[in-house]
C-alpha cells in the first residue's frame, strides 16, 4: 500500500513534496495551489493547517526513495503571449493554451483571483531551459 510521507526534497517542511510524490504530480503544482489557497484564506488559517499536517505526516523512512514520474511544470518558451505561464500549464495538462488563457481571463473578470493566481504562477513556475544550438 502506498503511504504519504514528508518529502526529503523540501522547500518548507516537505508537505507539498510529499503530497506531490503520493499523487505523482509535479511539486510546483501543489505549491502553487497551497500559496493561492493561503492567500484566499488570509494566510494564517492555511499556514496553521500546513504546519499541523507537517506534524501528522510521518518522515520518510531511512533509505526510502520516491519515483515521481510526473512531467515538470515549466513556463513555456514556445507558446507564450506574456510570460509563458498559460502555455506551460497547457503543455503540462495537454490542452489548448487558448483554453487556459480564457480561464485566466474569466477568473480576472468574474472571480477576481485571476491576476493573483497568474502572479503566483509567474513567480513559482521555473522557466523551460534554453536549448543550446551547436554549429557543426
Give an account of the 3D structure.
With 136 residues, this protein is mainly alpha-helical. 52% of the residues lie in helices and 0% in strands. It contains six helices and no strands. The longest helix is centred in the last third of the chain and has 15 residues, at 97-111. The termini are far apart.
From the spread of the alpha carbons, the general shape counts as globular
Rg from Cα:
17 Å
Show unreliable segments.
none
What's the count of strands?
A: 0
Mean pLDDT, as a whole number?
A: 80
Strand content: under 5%
Largest sheet, strands/sense/barrel: none
Share in helix: 40-55%
Structural class: mainly alpha
Name the features.
about 140 residues, 6 helices, mainly alpha
Task: Give the topology, please.
Layout: H1 15-23, H2 27-40, H3 44-56, H4 85-93, H5 97-111, H6 114-124
Helix pairs in contact: 1-2, 2-3, 2-6, 4-5, 5-6
Could you give a quick summary of the protein structure above?
With 136 residues, the protein is mostly helical. The chain has helices spanning 15-23, 27-40, 44-56, 85-93, 97-111, 114-124.
